[in-house]
Design brief:
Layout: E1 4-13, E2 20-28, E3 31-36, E4 43-46, E5 50-54, E6 56-61, H1 79-82, H2 84-93, E7 96-101, H3 107-114, E8 122-124, E9 129-132, E10 140-141, E11 145-146, E12 159-160, H4 162-175, E13 181-184, H5 202-214, E14 220-226, H6 227-236, E15 240-246, H7 249-258, E16 261-263, H8 267-270, H9 280-294, H10 314-332, H11 335-340, E17 358-362, E18 375-380, E19 383-384
């Protein structure tokens, strides 16, 4: 017999209008089946004085790299996927019910969550950060030559050159199960070089976009700090720009014209401004304001573990402060993130027929300043998520050198 779980006497955030209204919500299996007042159910959860949000979506995270990047030589290969277990549990306990992994998780991590072997958000994967020779996905040192810490049959070679090589690298990633194709178009802020470089030609970028589209309608997420790389990527038709630290009007104009999304990962520069190059924090905030004012669509992503995964919800306060406001930040982490990922028909809002991924907060205001302290209950696929012990994330170390 089907069980009806009633979430009663709470308030619901409408991600489309930005409004809040009192309502009961009924869940059956993994779906929302009714929203209204005076509803009934077989089992009830008291949501009084609380606010129901859709499950949150992190469009740019790294669930497997917190440990291995700190000690790439001294740890067994199995540490990479196994270290995702506490990370995924932490993210789910903080209301993140879907993630797009931007480099490091293989198809086995996605499968482990799908089959219920480990608890966590649904995981979309990109496998590796593909790049041309010398890009930040090309792990090489002058003394040793190739030093590929991620070398594994499940994580194919990410380096390519030329349009034909671009098509081949997409095919390698698709063969290994990639949902998205992650591309490095500039250097790294963490390394401190090449952030304004343009590391692909237009022919290479267009070949990546076309081949990904041909391979099941996949899209590109492009690591790009500098404006020229962003402009080139947008004009080639990529799905999203990751970071976008140094945008200008031409880059933003290209994004608006092409409908390109921005995943700004403000946590990289705003959570600890002293850790990034001089002026980067200010430039990053200004880029988000410029993009938002121009109508660029923005989705939430953190780039953790640049910061600990326990700080995932800090990204919303940074988005709010950069001009989106609290309602806009919550929209970027819910329905807009779902739209970017092509999942808006299934999740991203509290709506009948949508997936029963929900976050119950104490209080009914939209203030994003301290969301992690307000979480009363998380529901994933219609089931309550067990509370996370206070010290459960201690095993997840911070990787300050994650390429960002």
């Amino acid at each position: 017999m089907t069980r009806r779980l009633l979430l009663h006497s709470g308030s619901v955030f409408d991600v489309v209008s930005g409004g809040v209204s009192a309502a009961d919500v009924v869940l059956v299996d993994d779906r929302i089946v009714d929203i209204g007042t005076g509803l009934d159910g077989d089992e009830a959860v008291d949501c009084s004085s609380g606010l129901l949000l859709p499950g949150l979506i992190d469009c740019h995270t790294h669930v497997c790299t917190a440990e291995t990047r700190r000690d790439p030589f001294g740890l067994p290969r199995s540490v990479r996927p196994l270290s995702a277990v506490p990370v995924l549990r932490t993210l789910l306990s903080l209301g993140v019910t879907t993630v797009r992994d931007a480099w490091g998780a293989d198809a086995g991590v996605r499968m482990a969550v799908e089959k219920g072997w480990i608890d966590g958000p649904e995981v979309l994967i990109s496998l590796r950060q593909v790049c041309t020779t010398g890009g930040i996905g090309d792990l090489w040192a002058p003394r040793t030559g190739p030093v590929d810490f991620f070398e594994d049959p499940s994580l194919p070679d990410p380096v390519f050159n030329g349009a034909d090589g671009a098509r081949a690298v997409v095919r390698r990633m698709v063969r290994a199960g990639a949902d998205w194709i992650k591309v490095a178009a500039t250097g790294s802020m963490a390394i401190g070089t090449g952030v304004h470089d343009l590391q692909l030609t237009i022919d290479e970028m267009e070949a990546l976009v076309d081949e990904a589209r041909r391979q099941g309608g996949r899209r590109l997420m492009v690591h790009a700090h500098g404006a020229r790389a962003v402009e080139l990527a947008a004009r080639a038709g990529v799905g999203s720009i990751e970071h976008g630290t140094y945008l200008d009007e031409a880059a933003v104009g290209a994004m608006v014209e092409a409908g390109t999304w921005l995943v700004p990962t403000l946590s990289v520069s705003q959570s600890d401004p002293e850790s990034v190059p001089a002026g980067a924090a200010e430039a990053h905030r200004e880029s988000v304001r410029l993009a938002n004012d121009a109508g660029v669509r923005i989705a939430m992503g953190t780039d953790n573990p640049v910061r600990p995964h326990t700080e995932v919800l800090w990204e919303l306060r940074h988005l709010a402060a950069a001009g989106l406001g609290d309602a806009g930040a919550l929209r970027a982490a819910t329905i807009d993130a779902a739209r970017l990922l092509g999942l808006a028909d299934d999740r991203g809002e509290v709506s009948v027929g949508k997936r029963a991924d929900l976050v119950l907060l104490d209080g009914t205001d939209l203030d994003c300043t301290s969301l992690e302290q307000r979480i009363r209950q998380v529901f994933h696929n219609g089931s309550p998520v067990a509370a996370q012990p206070a010290d459960a994330d201690q095993a997840v170390t911070v990787d300050a050198e994650q390429a960002r």
